[in-house]
Amino acid sequence: MKKVVLISLVFLIGFVFSGNAQSKKVNQKINEKIEKINRQIIASNPEAALTNEQREKIYELLLGLRKKIKELKKEHKGDDNLKELIKAERKKVNKIIFNKILTPEQKKARRATKRKNKK
Question: The domain containing residue 9 runs over which residues?
Answer without folding.
Answer: 2-118
